[in-house]
Write a structure and sequence with these properties.
Distance between the termini: 36 Å
Strand content: 15-25%
Helix content: 25-40%
Number of helices: 15
Length: about 500
């Protein structure tokens, strides 16, 4: 992975060297402190030449400006100062790092003409810089300059009005950022490196943060009756695992909140094999499990005052002589039987047993599952929103609000008995696919049969967890989608 920058905070001053980033408001306005970094007026002249207007997250740089020892002087647009919110500060931070990253020492002057940046604003800027700095390049022996990478991590100093308060605010943001980066790493790893056992080991590493982790083996899952999950794994040489992560940050008697992730470390489609084109992307079919693992890291690292459970079903879907066949009927842990019509509709089989297990054992306050479940959700929503399905309006509304606040947006899609009929089977209690029409909805209807009356939401993140559009805070194929969304949900509504 790319080397993570160090981030520090200091009082507002005029930097002496390195790359210096200043913030320009709408129309190119600079604060007094920012202007002091440019005594020769090089930026102001460049603004006119480049028609730079200070639009949010735009940038302009002057290399080796006259009259200073700076490597580069960069202006980042912030737009209208009175319109800045958390998401805008994230974008500013990401844009600032991107513009100055080629220099080892970066100073960002968090000072705006006519407005004051609060400690929380500065922390949001730092958060954006940290996420924007991420790149998955661990397998590149040579970098873009053609040379082996021996560079030290960038040193970022954010100059602000109250550095001690900003440092304190960033401690929480940094915990969440670490969770996002963990999720990105997991999704980006190739399947030959990150299999079911290796993923389970990654979950076990959370014990360093006082998360209690259990790993169920095939033998234990078979004893529990998890034939739906195990059926997906039977064609792979890699054994299935169920990882249970528990963070007990709330009161002992408080019901936990629960998050369940689909962890198909590689999905060939099984006997219903996928087309060759794009199959390499199926290393990311564990994006839901990655998000749950990243979320549990975030909650534990920031010592969230909540009891939380994270469960991930880890399998590989491969087409060998032992693989599950179309037409097979399996009995889930719930006792309900499932006719397997298409072995490429495997994620819902994994989640069915994981959801039932979670509900039976932990009696959670709510359950939210995340899965790169259907291509149909990309047809419906593209890459800008995850599909949201829920049996509880309050939970759905809270998720919508958290999505708006963090920029990890969700869009609610319907559940209804009419759709449920599409997965009824003549040979079993249900079948695992209802056909092409309403594909995302019938997948959600399937999952709903395993949650009982517990408030529940299903997030179909097929279009947002991987291959989503590049932004100021993510230039990676894997986005880590879901960590920020669910951390905000917990923080705003469920911490004691």
């Amino acid at each position: 992975m790319s080397q993570r920058p160090s981030i520090a905070f200091a009082k507002i001053a005029t930097p002496k060297k390195g790359s210096v980033v200043v913030l320009a408001t709408d129309g190119g306005g600079l604060s007094e402190a920012a202007s002091a970094c440019d005594p020769q007026g090089a930026l102001k002249k460049a603004f006119g030449v480049a028609d730079f207007s200070g639009k949010l997250a735009t940038s302009l740089e002057v290399l080796a400006p006259q009259g200073s020892d700076y490597d580069r002087l960069v202006a980042i647009g912030v737009g209208k100062a009175d319109a800045l919110d958390e998401r805008a500060w994230n974008r500013i931070g990401g844009a600032a790092f991107a513009a100055a990253k080629k220099t080892g020492e970066i100073s960002i002057l968090a000072d705006i003409d006519g407005a004051e940046a609060s400690a929380e604003d500065v922390a949001s800027l730092a958060f954006g810089a940290m996420l924007g700095a991420y790149a998955f390049d661990k397998y590149k022996t040579k970098k873009d300059n053609g040379k082996a990478d021996a560079a030290k991590p960038a040193k970022v100093t954010i100059l602000c009005a109250n550095p001690s308060a900003a440092k304190k605010a960033f401690a929480t943001a940094e915990a969440v950022a670490d969770g996002v980066l963990l999720a990105r790493d997991l999704v980006n790893e190739p399947a030959n490196v990150l299999g079911t056992l290796e993923f389970a080991d990654k979950a076990k590493e959370l014990e360093k943060l006082d998360v209690k982790v259990e790993i169920l083996t095939e033998k234990e899952m078979k004893k529990l009756g998890m034939a739906a999950l195990l059926g997906v794994a039977q064609g792979s040489a890699r054994p299935a695992r169920l990882a249970i992560m528990r963070w007990d940050g709330g009161k002992a008697k408080d019901q936990p909140v629960a998050f369940i992730g689909k962890g198909v470390v590689f999905d060939s489609g099984g006997i219903s094999i996928k087309p060759a084109g794009g199959m390499e992307d199926m290393k990311g079919d564990m994006g839901g499990a990655a998000a749950v693992t990243g979320l549990m890291h975030a909650l534990a690292a920031r010592r969230a005052k909540v009891n939380a459970v994270g469960i991930i079903g880890l399998v590989e879907n491969m087409p060998d002589a032992n693989a599950q066949r179309p037409g097979d009927i399996v009995t889930s842990m719930s006792g309900q039987t499932i006719e397997v019509i298409n072995t490429d509709a495997e994620g819902r089989l994994v989640l069915a047993d994981a959801l039932w297990y979670c509900n039976e054992r932990f009696k959670p306050r709510f359950m939210i599952n995340l899965a790169t479940l259907t291509g149909a959700v990309i047809v419906a929503l593209g890459n800008e929103h995850a599909g949201l399905f829920s049996n509880n309006d309050e939970l759905a509304d809270r998720l919508l609000g958290s999505g708006k606040d963090t920029g990890e947006k969700v869009w609610r899609l319907p559940l209804a008995p009419e759709y449920d009929k599409l997965i009824d089977s003549k040979n079993a209690d249900m079948k695992n696919t209802g056909g092409r029409n309403a594909g995302s909805i019938t997948a959600a209807q399937f999952l709903q049969r395993f949650v009982g009356d517990t408030p529940w939401a299903h997030l179909d993140i097929a279009g947002t967890a991987m291959g989503s559009p590049s932004s100021e805070i993510n230039h990676s194929w894997a986005s880590g989608f879901g960590v920020r969304l669910l951390d905000r949900l917990v923080r705003d509504h469920y911490e004691g």
